[in-house]
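FORM 12-B: Structure-to-Sequence Request
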């Protein structure tokens, strides 16, 4: 009888595949209430294991909130929120109040939802054109998407664009990086396992030796490979 495969062990939810709650305790979001023409201050810039970029703590009067750090900001820097935003890095404004061609990030999908899109390190979007009630944004995926004109966004590019340029060097460092996000490392290819560890394993080299499509009535330990494919075979 074979062993439990990785998918089964992951589904059980042991500490090997579990993320520390502390890593995701910080919520990055704009204030829920409408803030117009206000000035805030960046109190602190912190590192969060759950995010690929640094975060900044912003204070506006009695309100404090976390936002993704823009490239070029520093602690003690003044930022503006609302129509009076001067289009400097870190300012927050509605899409209808931002000039065309400006780089933006952390865009709200719907007004007052706190920011949902373009949040990875080093990424940014660009405002292409404005219409009556919508604004077209050029996304990092090279696609154009329309947003409500009242959705908010932060001006600039996200910091930590060079995080992938520094070599990791040691496998232990990579292990801790993956552990912080609840991912398994190192990961062994299925065809290189023994037959008791995976349905694709055994001494056939790198060949699976059977069809990659799993049977529709397969039990959990056998349901690997291509699951319920719409089509198989070579495309003409």
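FORM 12-B RESPONSE
SEQUENCE OUT:
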């Amino acid at each position: 009888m074979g062993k439990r495969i990785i998918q089964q062990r992951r589904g059980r939810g042991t500490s090997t595949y579990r993320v520390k709650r502390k890593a995701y305790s910080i919520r990055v979001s704009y204030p829920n209430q409408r803030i117009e023409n206000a000035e805030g201050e960046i109190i602190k810039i912190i590192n969060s294991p759950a995010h690929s970029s640094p975060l900044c703590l912003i204070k506006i009067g009695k309100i404090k909130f976390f936002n993704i750090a823009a490239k070029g900001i520093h602690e003690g820097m003044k930022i503006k929120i609302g129509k009076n935003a001067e289009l400097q890095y870190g300012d927050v404004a509605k899409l209808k109040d931002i000039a065309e061609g400006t780089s933006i990030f952390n865009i709200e999908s719907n007004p007052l939802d706190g920011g949902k899109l373009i949040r990875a390190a080093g990424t940014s979007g660009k405002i292409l054109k404005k219409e009556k009630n919508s604004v077209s944004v050029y996304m990092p995926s090279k696609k154009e998407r329309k947003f409500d004109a009242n959705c908010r966004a932060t001006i600039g590019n996200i910091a930590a664009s060079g995080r992938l340029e520094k070599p990791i060097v040691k496998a232990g460092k990579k292990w801790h990086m993956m552990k912080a996000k609840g991912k398994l490392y190192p990961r062994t290819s299925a065809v290189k396992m023994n037959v008791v560890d995976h349905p694709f394993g055994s001494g056939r080299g790198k060949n699976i030796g059977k069809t990659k499509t799993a049977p529709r009535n397969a039990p959990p330990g056998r349901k690997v490979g291509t699951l319920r494919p719409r089509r198989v075979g070579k495309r003409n």
